Amino acid sequence: MRIDRDSDGNPSISMYATDAQTRAFVQAVTDTELAWWARQQELGSVHANLAEDRSSHDHSAAIAHDEIRRRTRHA
Predict the structure, then answer these.
(1) Which of 8, 26, 42, 57 is 20 to 30 A from residue 63's alpha carbon, by CA?
(2) Confidence of residue 45 (pLDDT cuts 50, 70, 90)
(3) What does pTM read for this prediction?
(4) How do the domains of the chain map onto residue ranges?
């Protein structure tokens, strides 16, 4: 999977990505990038104005944290 990056070089994916796209994304980034991205999702949830946006951020963060736990168990 090709990882899109923002202007600062950080990994980026649409907040409207499907679960499968989000899972592929979190599996493709490094541990450091994944931890950063998960934190950004949590912050996005705090700052989101729309319930749909908040739900999307929460769901993406949950997928990222599941991947972090999986990587930690297999390390």
Answers:
(1) 8
(2) confident
(3) 0.64
(4) 18-73
